[in-house]
Design a protein that fits this description.
By secondary structure, this protein is of the alpha+beta class. The protein has 20 helices and eleven strands. One of its GO terms (molecular function) is iron ion binding.
Length: 496
């Protein structure tokens, strides 16, 4: 028999429980209440879902136009400034129209692979930046606060793809405007969970809201300048009767499928979504590879077997690197950038477990808690990339045990570009450097600031493999010389 409400779990969590660390809190609440429980977050009442089977049930009933959440604070800014909604904030048929225009050049493999050279150019500069950071750190081969550096890489990479321009993040001195943009992104994500604690009617009186608006103002200002610059470039070529071809932004502007205002809204949201996944995931990957030299060596051997010598990995080479992909998957399982997703039932009542939920129910999908379920992932706290390789163990995994990019038609629009960035960067970094942990042995834990990120800086040592190999060869050469001299001396003594 179906029940219309949750029994014995429909309670309001007290203030201390609400503000507990969200990621661990979900795991603890699951132990107490089971895989379904109700809680409040400011004015929001949410149904928490913390099992792979139940998450699958929610997502498979999400309807034709899925809604994550109405994101009132993000939408509120756009209404205040008369800005267009993008793929993250738009809903219904308008959202479907935007996604249908944006999807092809972000999701089709042939288009995504065409970004390989663009991304590899940024990777090359990042490898050089790592060398510069080592040389100027005063700590030998140490690179401090790796996540901050990878954030610059990810920002440079996604701007190269979306705006078809470089932002100077790989320079020794990063431009002030670029630094301010990066800071604004971080502030926006920091302020978001604070603002939604308050009713919308109070927002104008909150200092947090004013800061939130200021960060969005700067984000849109920079994006608008880049879009206008591209429009001017297109117009100059048109005036000269030149054929105009380009990648993402140029294609959108020339297609006339979206207004400039719509393009601005969508591009700005894509930019936000395209930075944290890459920077945080590669940070955690390198953190674990440094602690697990056997895994790092296995990855290194895979990379040099596919791309020996000076060969630079491309998108086609990545298809031959299953262990590389397994490392990224395992990292995203342990540290899903979005630890909890949301869905709102807007079209129909749905059944989850043995409960019947009405329309407008807000579900919180506890992905982090599920990714540490030992029934799905044995030894869940252990970094084990091999669990993602083809074999019997992988067949036992629930397909919704780890879904870091979401599911269905509302899945992450930038998934393939983010994956390509991560694969190219990680493969080339490990080919060039051996990564070792911080000698202090400081453990780094995750924390939630809307997105999951390292709570403290990740500091790692980067040893140049070519320098090591050269030193090793020199040592072998000296050994051979000593052996020859010894043999010659012995022979001379015997002859005399």
């Amino acid at each position: 028999m179906l029940r219309r409400s949750l029994v014995n779990v429909g309670l309001r969590l007290n203030r201390q429980q609400q503000h507990k660390a969200g990621i661990q809190g979900a795991i603890e609440h699951k132990k107490i209440y089971g895989p379904l429980w109700k809680s409040t977050y400011g004015p929001l009442v949410v149904v928490n879902v913390a099992s792979a089977e139940l998450i699958e049930q929610v997502l498979r009933q999400e309807g034709k136009h899925p809604v994550r959440t109405d994101m009132p604070h993000w939408r509120g800014y756009r209404e205040l400034r008369n800005q267009a909604h993008g793929p993250l904030t738009e809903m219904g048929e308008k959202w479907q129209r935007i996604r249908s225009i944006l999807n092809p050049r972000m999701l089709k493999p042939k288009h995504v692979s065409s970004y390989s050279n663009t991304i590899n150019d940024v990777v090359t500069d990042f490898i050089s930046r790592v060398a510069w950071l080592r040389d100027t750190s005063g700590q030998g081969v140490m690179v401090n606060d790796l996540t901050a550096e990878l954030y610059k890489f990810a920002f440079e990479g996604i701007c190269s793809v979306l705006f078809e321009t470089r932002m100077g993040c790989m320079n020794e001195t990063v431009p002030e405007e670029t630094q301010k943009f990066i800071f604004s992104v971080g502030e926006m994500f920091r302020l978001s969970p604070i603002i939604v604690l308050f009713p919308k009617s109070l927002w104008p009186y909150l200092p947090f809201w004013k800061q939130f608006v200021a960060t969005w103002d700067h984000l849109f200002k920079v994006a608008e300048e880049l879009v206008n610059k591209k429009i001017e470039g297109i117009q100059q070529n048109v005036d000269l009767d030149k054929n105009m071809e380009g990648a993402y932004l140029t294609h959108l502007l020339l297609s006339d499928q979206m207004t400039v205002t719509e393009i601005l809204g969508s591009i700005t949201e894509l930019l936000l979504a395209g930075v944290d996944t890459t920077s945080n995931t590669i940070s955690w990957s390198l953190y674990h590879l440094a602690k697990e030299p056997e895994i790092q060596e296995q990855l290194y051997q895979e990379v040099i077997s596919v791309c020996p010598g000076d060969k630079v990995p491309t998108s086609s080479d990545i298809t031959q690197m299953p262990y590389l992909k397994a490392i990224v998957k395992e990292t995203l399982r342990l540290y899903p950038v979005v630890p909890g997703n949301a869905r709102v039932t807007v079209e129909n009542e749905i059944i989850v477990g043995d409960h019947l939920f009405p329309k407008q129910t807000l579900f919180h999908l506890c992905h982090y808690a599920v990714s540490y379920d030992e029934n799905i992932f044995p030894a869940p706290h252990t970094f084990m990339p091999q669990r993602w390789l083809r074999g019997d163990d992988k067949l036992k995994q629930h397909p919704f045990g780890s879904v870091p990019f979401g599911f269905g038609i509302r899945a992450c629009l930038g998934r393939r570009v983010a994956e390509l960035e991560m694969y190219l960067l990680l493969s080339r970094l490990i080919k060039h450097y051996e990564v070792k942990p911080d000698p202090t042995g400081t453990a780094v834990k995750p924390i939630t600031r809307t997105l999951l990120c390292p709570a403290t800086p990740i500091n790692l040592k980067f040893l140049d493999r070519r320098a090591e190999q050269g030193a090793s060869s020199l040592h072998e050469d000296k050994s051979h010389i000593v052996m020859i001299v010894t043999w010659t001396t012995t022979l001379s003594e015997q002859c005399s």
